[in-house]
Amino acid sequence: MLKLLLLWSILLSGKVFSNDSLSSNSDGVFRARLNSASFLPYSGKILSNRPALDILLAYNWKFVSVYAFQSVDIRSTRSDINYFQLGFFRNLKFNEKWKITPYAVIEVPQNGVFYDSPYWITGMSLAYAPSPAWEIENTTLLADGFKSENQKDILNRLKISYTTKEKWEWTSFIWSNSDHFDKAGFITSGFMLTVPALLKPEKSDLRISFMYFQTLSKDKSIHTLDHTVNATLIWPLSF
Q1: 120 vs 173: CA distance, rounded Å
Q2: Pairwise CA distance, residues 162 & 154, whole Å
Q3: Whole-number Å distance between alpha carbons of 138 and 100
Q4: CB 118 within 8 A of CB 105
Q5: Is the N-terminal amide bond of 16 cis, ω within 30° of 0?
Q6: Backbone angles phi, psi at 103, to 5 degrees
Q7: Taking a C-beta distance cutoff of 8 angstroms, is the pair 152, 144 a contact?
Q8: What is the pLDDT of residues 69-90, one digit of tens each?
Q9: CATH number at residue 180
Q10: Cα-flanking dihedrals φ and ψ of residue 86, to 5°?
Q11: What pLDDT score was predicted for residue 131?
């Protein structure tokens, strides 16, 4: 069920393609990512150590931005990592330090099938950048299942990141899942380093990240690995 909340991993941008913010200086964004594990960045779960591929295509207009996203489990068609999303968002900057991003997304699960009953996801992100190098971002998501009440969910993610002049990015995460609707909650954490994949990063945006993932607490019904390492190769293009 929390696969619904993967939304933000698709929306990378501004800082850009190494992570998952919702802004870009270009009108169009394409990004492909290869993960060593089946990781859900905004729900804070790693389902398995099977590799997964995702592709994002996004475009920014003056008043709204739209994206399409496809995620695929490379080894299995029967996986919650298999899904398609179509989303809309809007970046609202108050000044150089504060930004709010509301969004609405519809997701189509593809676990063993090409099309299953879709879900709505709505949410909002509040970001504060005290300096060009630091950013604190809090995201709250509401997944509203179309089929039944127990598919609704609320999740919160706190992200703190620091980017060096050499484009090395250190990021820490805390995810908390509410048991308000589905009676199943958990808290997980992660620490990630993202670096240029080539020795001369000014010639390419190709990046690689390594994240240590740890489950701090969870109900017995929650399916996520207790701890593991996920490596990601990120290839972004702007147009």
Answers
A1: 24
A2: 27
A3: 10
A4: no
A5: yes
A6: -160, 160
A7: yes
A8: 999 999 999 988 999 999 999 9
A9: 2.40.160.40
A10: -130, 125
A11: 95
DSSP-derived letter for residue 166 is T
Q: Which amino acid is at 215?
A: T
Cα–chain center distance at 185:
19
Model pLDDT for residues 179-229, shown as the tens digit of each residue:
655 567 899 999 999 999 876 655 568 999 999 999 999 888 788 899 999
Find the domain containing 55 and state its range. Answer: 2-238
What digits encode the pLDDT tens for the residues 168-193?
999 999 999 876 555 678 999 999 99
Q: Would you say 87 and 103 are in contact if contact means Cβ atoms under 8 Å apart?
A: yes
Dist. CA 64–CA 149, nearest whole Å: 30
Q: How many residues does the chain have?
A: 239
The pLDDT of residue 135: 97
Provide the pLDDT for residue 97: 95
Confidence band of 19 (pLDDT split at 50, 70, 90) = very low
- Judged against a pLDDT cut of 90, whether residue 51 lies above it is answered with yes
Return the residue matching tokens 């690689």: 208
Number of domains present in the structure of the chain: 1
Tell me the average pLDDT of the chain.
83
E strands, the chain, are: 28-35, 39-40, 45-46, 52-60, 65-73, 83-89, 92-93, 98-109, 119-128, 134-145, 153-163, 169-177, 186-196, 207-218, 227-238
Cα dihedral across residues 71, 19, 86, 44: positive or negative? positive
Closest CA to 41 of 71, 20, 67: 20
The DSSP annotation for 58-89 comes to EEE-SS-EEEEEEEEESS-SSSTT-EEEEEEE
